[in-house]
Design a protein that fits this description.
Layout (H helix, E strand, L loop, with lengths): L15 E2 L2 E2 L5 H4 L2 E4 L11 H9 L7 H10 L13 H13 L5 E5 L7 H18 L2 E5 L3 H4 L5 E6 L2 E7 H7 E8 L13 E6 L3 E7 L7 H7 L2 E6 L3 H13 L1
Parallel strand pairs: 3-4, 4-5
Antiparallel strand pairs: 1-2, 6-7, 8-10, 8-11, 9-10
């Protein structure tokens, strides 16, 4: 993300942002980008209201209506000195600063890490509603997968700086699935040897399988018929899918 806005330059290859090489980004391009850093540094001596007015002075598209709505819904006191804010409220203020200029591109680095679950859900819902109004592109870097998976439509998974997955969210959900098997005729196999079975636990009458469905050429119904079992299919969330992506990348 720091490469995208020109804070760091690539040692190899090229980064282009809004059609411009990152090392040539000027005020016209940077004014169309909003960013929330993981490590937030804001002038602690300013009060929130003064900080908002200072930043707003650099943005012709700054929305005072959006600012007022966010301050109210996120329960931010504009009279508080920035240096006295809790980590969670500091994160909220950083989001307000990034969103109110109505950016075309919004970069969020761990945007909800310091927030409690209720506020995380409220903030993410607000962001999606507001930025849907602008038609913006949002890039979220996060380890809090359970919270962000409902608002993203494309996934890029990195392992030690290398892209191992770059795919639509819907396609990723279709790729992996959980099967719960219950025997209808005697014991189930002690082990399922099909290559698309990635993980498994079983006893004589039931089994739990994680299956890589894409390209397997088999469905739950035919698999159950083969093993004389009823198969219940359940979707998997990102927290459980990501370890599978890493395992496949390492093999």
């Amino acid at each position: 993300m720091r490469h995208v806005v020109g804070l760091q330059l690539p040692g190899a290859g090229e980064v282009q942002t809004l059609g411009v090489p990152s090392e040539r980004l000027g005020s016209s391009e940077l004014g169309r980008i909003g960013m929330v850093h993981q490590e937030i540094e804001l002038p602690g001596w300013m009060r929130v209201e003064r900080l908002l007015r200072y930043v707003a002075s650099y943005h012709a598209r700054w929305s005072r209506d959006r600012e007022a709505r966010l301050l109210e819904e996120l329960e931010i006191d504009p009279a508080v000195q920035v240096g006295m804010l809790t980590p969670g409220n500091l994160q909220k203020v950083a989001v307000v600063l990034a969103v109110c200029p109505r950016p075309e591109l919004l970069l969020l680095d761990e945007p909800v890490s310091a927030l409690d679950p209720i506020v995380r859900e409220r903030l993410l819902s607000l962001l999606i509603d507001l930025l849907r109004e602008d038609g913006s592109t949002i890039v979220i870097s996060s380890h809090v997968l359970r919270d962000v998976e409902r608002v993203v439509d494309w996934i890029v998974c990195l392992e030690r700086g290398r892209v191992i997955t770059d795919v639509a969210m819907d396609e990723l959900r279709e790729r992996y699935v959980e099967w719960r098997l219950t025997s209808t005729n005697g014991a189930l196999p002690a082990r399922f040897d099909e290559p698309f079975v990635l993980r498994q636990q079983s006893d004589e009458r039931s089994a739990w399988l994680v299956v890589r469905r894409a390209g397997a050429g088999i469905d739950a119904l035919s698999f159950g018929a083969r093993h004389h079992a009823v198969v219940e299919e359940r979707p998997m969330d990102l927290e459980r899918i990501f370890p599978l992506l890493l395992d496949e990348a390492r093999t």
